[in-house]
Amino acid sequence: xxxxxxxxxxxxxxxxxxxxxxxxxxxxxxxxxxxxxxxxxxxxxxxxxxxxxxxxxxxxxxxxxxxxxxxxxxxxxxxxxxxxxxxxxxxxxxxxxxxxxxxxxxxxxxxxxxxxxxxxxxxxxxxxxxxxxxxxxxxxxxxxxxxxxxxxxxx
Length: 155
Prior knowledge:
The model is unreliable at 60-64 and 66-70 (pLDDT under 50). The two termini are 17 Å apart. This protein is mainly alpha-helical. It has helices at 2-13, 20-30, 35-55, 59-69, 84-96, 113-122, 127-134, 139-147, and strands at 100-103, 106-109. The chain contains eight helices and two strands. The protein is globular.
């Protein structure tokens, strides 16, 4: 989970650290991201970004592509089970989140990266949580951002 947050949300979440280079090195170590793997992710990101920019010229073409490539009735989807640790992180992050969505008449939490990072950082007995705090994570600023109901989740 931390790897995905790091790769996908780094620009936004890096603002909660004063020394971004120190924490980035820490995250690369615990996430086992080699320079080659990092370079691969950057190339993939850049390729997708350019592809999206090109598709912006024709939004109808992009919409039609999505309609054709979206699996229906669970077709083509594999649901991998969550570990019990990941389930606990997501449930606890959901308790922190001020955002809710209605699904089939139920109110479910919308979990943001800030909520997940906050839960991980607050875990006193967790080595990763302790290490994140030791890198200078501004936990109080992160908590304000995670709990701010005016800050809508990114989609």
